[in-house]
Amino acid sequence: MGRRNLLLMGAIGMCVCQYIVAITGTVAGTTNLPAQQAAIAFVCIYIFFFASSWGPVAWVVTGELFPLKVRAKCLSMTTATNWLLNFAIAYSTPYLVNEGDGYANLQSKVFFVWGSFCFVCIAFVWFMIYETKGLSLEQVDELYGIVTKAWQSKSFRPQVSFQEVSDKRGMSMSEMAQETERRRSKASIEGTEKV
């Protein structure tokens, strides 16, 4: 399916599940048994969407995202950020859900907050995540150098080979791609003239 499609599917599925749990809990309350069962079912469906998309694919995307020179440091920072935000969410949830002095008493309404973050994930993937399925790390660098809009990344076809990257160290990826395209066009024209 590709990284982009999986992340979009997962974010949409998680967003819908979060809003359904929020609406069910807010409208029906905590005393209605069928509403509780529906909320539990959609929490399980949410887990499915997360486990099949954002859970593993986010690590794949961050592994391909950064240039080779700084990849190790950047991955360390993304891992630390992920763990820090997981801690913050786990620590703040009781304060958001419980009732009493110093608590927000959101109860089921907290799922509206989390569903809204999932909605932001949809926009983030659409505008920021490039499709890197089937590309080598060098080709990913070329993709980021040539394609300016993430939603256009599916149509990207690499122009530069690994050998060309190692031969032309001072050039940018877009310059290498343009030179490769010029050479291919020239060879194609010369081949046509010979026929």
From TrEMBL:
Gene Ontology CC annotations of this record: membrane
TM segment ranges: 38-62, 74-91, 111-130
Region named Disordered: 168-195
Main localization of the protein described in the UniProt heading: membrane
Keywords: Membrane, Transmembrane, Transmembrane helix, Transport
InterPro entries found in the cross-reference section: MFS_dom, MFS_sugar_transport-like, MFS_Sugar_Transporters, MFS_trans_sf, Sugar/inositol_transpt
Limits of the Major facilitator superfamily (MFS) profile domain: 1-133
Compartment list: Membrane
A GO term for molecular function: carbohydrate:proton symporter activity
Membrane protein topology class: Multi-pass membrane protein
Family under the similarity heading: Belongs to the major facilitator superfamily. Sugar transporter (TC 2.A.1.1) family.
Protein name stated in the entry: Plasma membrane low glucose sensor
Gene that this sequence comes from: SNF3_1
